[in-house]
Amino acid sequence: MVFPVVLAVIFLFIIFVFPKVTLGLDFVGGTRLVIDVGLLDGQSIKNVLSSELGLSDVKVSVVSSPFGTSTRIEYAEPKRLSDARQLFDQAVLEKNKNPDKAKDLLVQSLSILNKEESFGDVDSLLQETASVLNSETEKLADRVLSVLVSMFGLSPDASFTTERVTPSFGSSFLGNALQVAVVSIILLSLVIFISFREFIPSIAIIEAALFDILTAVALAALFGFSLTLSSVAALLMIIGYSVDTDILLTTRLLKRRDKTVYERANETLKTGFTVTASLIGAAGAMLLVSWMAQITTIFEISAIVLFGMLGDLASTWFTNAPVLLWYWEKKHGKVDS
Amino acid sequence: MANKKSLLGNWKVLLWIIFVLGSMSVIFFNGLTFGSEFSGGTLFQLQLAEPASNDQLSEIKLIVEKRLNPTGIKDVVVSSTGQSIVLAQVAETDPVEVSNLQSLLLKQGRFESFINGGKIFDGSQIVQVVENPQQGYGAIQTENGYQWTLPFLLNDEAAKQFTKSSFHQCTQTGFGEYDCAYTFFFIDRPINSIVVYPFSVQEKDEGKLSITSSLQIPPSITIDDILENANLNLVRANDNQLSEFDSNLLGNPPENVRNVMIPSSLNRELKERISNSTSLEIVEVNEMEDSAWLVSVSGLRDIISLTPGVANLDPFVEKVEDAVPFQFLVIQGTAPDAETAKQRLNDLRVLLKSGALPIPIISINKQTVSAELGERFLTNVWAMGLLALLVVAAIIFIRYRKIKLAVPVLAVGLSEVVMILGFAAVAKWNLDLASMAGILAAVGTGVDSQIIMTDEMLHGQDQEEESKDVLKRAKRAFFIVATSSATSIATMLPLVILGSGIGRLSGFALTTIVGVLMGVLISRPAYQQIIQHILTPEEELLE
User: Fold this and answer.
1) Interface predicted TM-score (ipTM)
2) The whole model's pTM is what?
3) CB within 8 Å of chain B, chain A residues 213-272
């Protein structure tokens, strides 16, 4: 019982203190450009983009796998643009309550972008600002591309993917994701309580699921993954898989009457390990292929599921099992094993 | 072999087989639609300033489609998720084109209407486009098809102008029959551009007028009529030469002119001449097979005939001073069927509103995947899924040392994939990476359940009375499987209901839920029968 508690404390430390979990593009906004060519010199790309274009927060990574090399470039907007966007976002919030203030904010936003306001109602001003912001972002993207093309002699038909998330979108994603997570956990708890109708075993199952998520997030932080929408999907998958072994354990220990409780626990250990091993194996296979083929979404999902399943080994067998045995003994008296 | 017969005779197994075969044929006949991540293309995610009502949403979707696809020839799919996010998928991957499309999305169009070369009114002068059926809006069935009516309201100034410009613009051709002048509707007429329109291109256009697919052009309309009403700053570039007038216009453009629009087929020589004689930006506008170039470059969207009534001929008013200004106007037309009538009404309604959105778009996310990469993704995802299942089968084999236990797990896992894809084909889902992940998630839970069921059945064999009872064992296994499925659904459901703001993920959750349901209702009961069937002979041997 001490072991998981210590682990949990360590995980919390990793998540919140060091190295700290970071939020990815989907939640903070920014642009990601993946080019199917190994530009190799990540550092100089970074220097050029930050010095010449004033981009903040440029991340460049070169991923090599047996299927090829690709360069991944992520950047956030320069300050001028993000300042203007912040004013714009505020204006959107104020629009209905306080149109005059919204107008003021929009005019300020436009002036940061060196554009004079044209006259009109809030809606048309809003639309105009959105349009200017958009064209500034596009111009920036064009410049980034042309810098890359001229510096590294990229052929224009290189395979690529681009992805852009505006910061306001990102923060609304995050809000929505958190809201969904809370409701999910409540619903999950309800289902577990209704199925088992016993307080302590139910709590133990939910606790195990939360521990698995904690493990997954901590390991993700440790390995330098940032959290994205795919990670949220993976975390939800973990909840589903995590409860499987716990439900199995609880049912076998509390509902079966043959053999001793310890024998049943041992037997379940084997089954549970097979279940978890299958998932780890499947996630591992996916991790390998998605790494080779460089499919980021699936790579992130399978890595996080893998982490979560490692956590599940600890939570099921070092926490849930002892808790259930203790609970059983409390209910039925000590049994000789 | 008696066993085999009994297995196929079992309704649970039969149901499973029927579902799998049904899914296969649905996939075969309907086909699967893949998202832009696999087919290549760009996905725009548009955020609205505030949540829209359902009516507003369908209006917004219509307008977004019009903005991305004004001529109706591109492949654009517009959908929405939740009340404040609209998704638009286009097959375009060229960065420049994508960025053009993106700015189109944010731009409100400028509507203008012309008659005989003079402006009658523009979008700002339309007070209201009436959408109330009680005031005449809509389509009604008549003897030979459908008649549709779109009423709208002009402000004073425009009403006066309209009455003046249309006064007596019809000629009587017979008793009660008139031949009336046409009004030309434009969106974003290129007032800030010089348009290069060589006679050679005009000649091609003359032939294309009757086949122009983006709008119906009345047979009597000529290129000159369009030119007269479009009022463009024209460079005619006769015989590949720039006349003095042309060079002057290009060299000293009017102050408001920002660029020069040229047809894409223009020969290089002329292109060079043009770019040498001007400092303005040159914009190439594509020529299309089935549409006159002049129509696309001028922004011409519709041509509507006046009626003798609005021309003050029927009833007859002699002097223009005596004509009462028409503020309330209607556009009417006929269509062969209800669908076309509705389409026509929608098009014109959006047009008159200058393509204005009821709720502004405040930001755009986008994701572009090149076609080649997308295809490779898809192949790899299949390979990955198969490999994952093989690994699971291998682990099961290692654990139980029985190949015949590993095979059903593999088969049932694959069947779940097929059934989910079958469902996707029926529901016409757009399969993207997220829904692929959902399939993997569902199959993962399936594998979990199958191992638990196998184990439950295996263990009973060498144990005491209570658990020898097959029914009891099956019941307990089912309890575990059902609880585990219920928790999976419970965790995913909030994402479907509340998570529309995070579009992609709700697709993931929905796929997972469908997969889990298919599993728990169809494939797992069948699996239990299969596994029972496989284990039974051995049990008999043991006894």
Assistant:
1) 0.90
2) 0.80
3) 229-230, 232-233, 236-237, 239-241, 243-245, 247-248, 251, 255-259, 267, 270-271
